[in-house]
Amino acid sequence: MNSYSGTFIVVEGGDGAGTTTQSKKLAEELDAHWTAEHGARRPDGGCVGDKIEEMISSRDYSAEAVALAFATDRMLHLEEDVLPRLENGEVVVSDRYMYSSIVYQSLMGADRDWVENINRYALTPDLAIVLDVDADIAMSRVESRGEDDNIFEQLSFQEKVVLKYRELARQNSECVRVDSSKPIEDVFEQIMSEIRSASLF
User: Fold this and answer.
1) Which residues contact 85 (CB under 8 A, 6 or more apart)?
2) Cα separation of 124 and 1, whole Å?
3) Cα separation of 35 and 27, whole Å?
4) Which of 58, 82, 113, 175 would bridge with 128, disulfide CB 3.0–4.6 Å?
5) 180 with 187: CB under 8 angstroms?
6) 13 near 132, Cβ under 8 Å?
7) Structural domain of residue 89, as residue ranges?
8) CB 175: neighbour CB atoms within 10 A?
9) pTM across the whole model
10) Rounded to whole angstroms, how far apart are CA atoms 168 and 130?
């Protein structure tokens, strides 16, 4: 639990797991502030986030450079947007957070302990919902969106992502897994059940 009067919840998972859909539904249900990792995906933008978009659309950058960019953007986002809201007693729901770096950049080749170390000042959320779905289902969802691929949206890579998220959820007490292979409303009801179980409100 964080020491602020507000509540910080993050929704995590691999590509196609439904993090954006479910985090936005959750923010609406809780009358919370919705935000997202890296600037191009969140309402307030961010110059580092714009660079991240370029980096994850290319294979020209090392895993370490990508991890550092995400860590920098994350701390700026926390200090400029998230923490002031938590201090004011608001509820903040984030589409992805530091767990994505631990999973994705370690699979890219960066040392996991090092990735965790450069994110050690990132606030631990009150609850992290890890959406769990097999990679083949997730990739079919990604393909149906018809968006430009990033370097992570490959079935073989996402199969490893799923396993890493499951491992991470077992290792961190603030994380809970939710089966996101089910219909959207069923997944959302399970998320709400986990929130009630955590006695956050």
Assistant:
1) 6, 33, 92
2) 7
3) 9
4) 175
5) yes
6) yes
7) 7-197
8) 18
9) 0.91
10) 9
Cβ–Cβ < 8 Å for 18, 135: no
Three-state DSSP class for 20?
Answer: helix
| Distance of alpha carbon 28 from alpha carbon 34, whole angstroms | 8
The residue type found at 150 is N
Which of 169, 119, 143, 142 has the alpha carbon at shortest distance from 11? 169
Nearest to 164 by CA among 191, 130, 188, 139: 130
Measured between alpha carbons, how far is residue 165 from residues 5, 31, 161 in Å? Answer: 29, 28, 6
- Tokens representing 56? 């994850």
Query: What is the C-alpha separation between 112 and 169, in angstroms, rounded?
Result: 15
CATH of the domain at 26: 3.40.50.300
Structural domain contains residue 159: yes
| DSSP summary character for residue 82 | I
> For the segment 1-24, what is each residue's pLDDT rounded down to a tens digit?
578 999 999 999 998 899 999 999
Q: Give how far the C-alpha of residue 67 lies from the chain's centroid of Cα atoms, to the nearest Å.
A: 14
What is the domain count for the chain?
Answer: 1
Helix, strand, coil percentages (3-state) for the chain, rounded to 5, are: 55, 15, 30
**Kind and range of the H or E element at 81?**
none
Beta bridge partners of 177: 130
Residues of the chain with pLDDT under 50: none
* Both tokens assigned to 96: 């992805």
